[in-house]
Structures are given as structure tokens and as C-alpha cells.
Write a structure and sequence with these properties.
single chain; alpha/beta; 2 domains; about 20% strand; elongated
């Protein structure tokens, strides 16, 4: 009987939680007016984290701004970090007449597929996705090449031979990038040790900071991250210890100008503009837009101001490391 009572309490708690989450979503969309005359392009962005993260989500916000400015779209952005609400959040935009909806993250893949199948009038775009249907497109975020170059930069910088890497979640795109990073590092310094750890989410700055400190305590003297908002904690830890770090997803040199020597950059804004333009053309068919070194949509970018403070020999070595072509 006690077990049954406990289950009932759990059911009530989940029901209330689901009702509350739905109410929050409804209130957000209630404040978002629909373009009643149907003449203006409506474009939405759903991010899993804050657009103030200086990286992954900030890059998406930059992209939405470009869509608004260059294409004259009416835009709306909402943060949705609960997997239970992914589908309903995407569906809300479709039912309100949005022509293009960007779901910014690998975690939205399955939800976007289901919602796209029910709303053929809306084009859904999944960043870090891998699928395409009539009205579903994906941005294949292929940062392996630039991550390989970043690994070479880290190996050129390290004095201890130990490099620390912090990820958000242990998902295929991140694991693939980290594997390429390690291969790049060992192409410069075969004896290099790359220690990888994961936060378990994308926004726990404190946890990421603690993990970065632990890596530094284990001898790492260069840090790299692919952890979205949580990555800010990694950059702070590097700054506190006076070591250099490599940013990810966006040029993060402005976050810690004296610490971030360079960044693995994805030109997400250009991807957003290209796919929005394509989506509003008659006869659009979903496709996968790949962002690799060859496309020019992914690249390694140095912090020029910090590079200028390095001695000439190191600058030359770093430049050679970052401009090499992956095998």
C-alpha cells in the first residue's frame, strides 16, 4: 500500500510538472503575435541553452539576427532545455504559421522529424542533424578538420605534454571532434596525453570549471572545450591558472582575451541565411548542409591580439600547425 501511495504521489508530481511546463510554453507563445496578413516571413529559433553563452547558442542568435536583417523576417527565439518539451515547442511554432524553424542541437533530431511529418507547410532545420526529408533540413556540423588543427595548436603550446578537454554531453558529434583533436595533437607530439571529461549537460558552468581545474591539477597546461554555455567555466579556469585555452563553435577570444589563443569556429549565421533562402523558394526539398573545412563554413581562427604577443618562432609554429591540411 505504501508503494502504491508513493507511485500515486509520483504520478501527481509528474502531472503537475508537465502541466506547469506546458503552461510556461503556452505563455511564451501567447506573447508572440502571429503575422495575420501572411505576407511577412516568420522564422523561429529554439536553443537548448542561453544565447548569452558566447559560443554555440550565441552563434545561433547571430544567425537569427542575420536572417532578420538580410531577409526582412520576423523572428522569435525561445530556449527549451527539457527533452520532454522539444516536440511541443517546435509544434507551437508550426501551428502559429512560422515558415522556418531552426532547432539548434543534435538533441532535437528525433522531435524535429516527428513534427515535420505533421506540418509540411513549415521547414524545420536541425543544427548538428543528419536527416533530410521534404520539409526537414540539417546542418551537418563537421568540425573534425578544424578540431584536428586545434589539437596541433594545443600540442605546439603544451610544455607538460598533457592537454585537457571538456565536453558538454557524450554525444557522437562531440566525441568525433575530440577524437580528431587528439589525432591532431599526436601528429605534432606523439607522446602527448589528451585527457577528456564530460560535464553531462551544456549549461553547468560551475561543474565545467571544477572539471577544468581537476585537469589542470593533473598536469594539463592547455585546455579545449566543446561544452556550449558550460564551456565558459573552462575558459575561466584557464584564465585563473594562467594557461591558454581554445574556444569552440564561435570566436571566443572576446570571452577571455588574454587566455583564448584561438577557436574552432562554425559559421552558423551563414548556414542559417543559406537555408532560409533555400526554404522559401518554390519546390524546396530538404537537404543536409555540411560544414567542414572544404566548405569554408568551419575553420580555426586565432586571437590575433594574443598571437601578436607571442615570440616570432612560436607564432610561426602555431600558424603552421593551424594551416596544415588533415589527412
Amino acid at each position: 500500500m505504501a508503494v502504491r501511495s508513493g507511485r500515486m504521489r509520483g504520478m501527481v508530481h509528474r502531472t503537475i510538472s508537465t502541466w506547469f511546463a506546458t503552461l510556461v510554453v503556452a505563455s511564451v507563445f501567447g506573447a508572440c503575435s502571429r503575422d495575420d496578413d501572411g505576407q511577412r516571413l516568420l522564422v523561429a529559433l529554439v536553443t537548448p541553452g542561453p544565447v548569452s553563452d558566447g559560443g554555440w547558442n550565441s552563434a545561433a542568435a547571430d544567425g537569427l539576427k542575420r536572417v532578420e536583417t538580410e531577409l526582412g523576417a520576423k523572428v522569435h527565439q525561445v530556449r527549451e532545455s527539457s527533452a520532454l518539451q522539444f516536440e511541443s515547442t517546435l509544434e507551437q511554432f508550426a501551428t502559429r504559421g512560422y515558415r522556418v524553424v531552426f532547432a539548434h542541437g543534435y538533441e532535437f533530431n528525433e522531435s524535429a522529424k516527428r513534427v515535420a511529418s505533421r506540418h509540411p507547410e513549415t521547414v524545420f532545420v536541425v543544427t548538428s542533424g543528419n536527416s533530410a526529408t521534404t520539409n526537414l533540413a540539417s546542418i551537418d556540423v563537421a568540425i573534425e578538420g578544424a578540431s584536428w588543427q586545434a589539437g596541433r595548436v594545443a600540442a605546439t603550446l603544451t610544455k607538460t605534454g598533457t592537454i585537457g578537454v571538456v565536453g558538454g554531453q557524450d554525444i557522437p558529434p562531440v566525441k568525433s571532434a575530440f577524437a580528431a583533436f587528439e589525432v591532431g595533437a599526436k601528429s605534432i607530439r606523439p607522446d602527448a596525453t589528451v585527457i577528456t571529461t564530460y560535464v553531462g549537460n551544456w549549461d553547468d558552468v560551475t561543474n565545467a570549471h571544477g572539471q577544468a581545474v581537476a585537469l589542470l591539477d593533473r598536469g594539463a597546461d592547455v585546455l579545449f572545450h566543446d561544452a556550449d554555455a558550460a564551456g565558459i567555466g573552462v575558459l575561466h579556469a584557464a584564465a585563473e591558472r594562467g594557461v591558454l585555452a581554445i574556444g569552440c563553435n564561435r570566436d571566443q577570444s572576446a570571452v577571455k582575451p588574454d587566455t583564448v589563443i584561438g577557436s574552432v569556429v562554425i559559421d552558423i549565421p551563414e548556414c542559417f541565411v543559406r537555408l532560409t533562402k533555400a526554404a522559401i523558394e518554390p519546390g524546396f526539398q530538404g537537404r543536409v548542409l555540411r560544414t567542414d573545412l572544404a566548405s569554408g563554413l568551419t575553420f580555426f581562427k586565432f586571437n590575433d591580439a594574443l598571437m601578436a604577443r607571442q615570440d616570432e618562432a612560436l607564432r610561426a609554429a602555431l600558424t603552421a600547425a593551424a594551416t596544415a591540411t588533415p589527412p
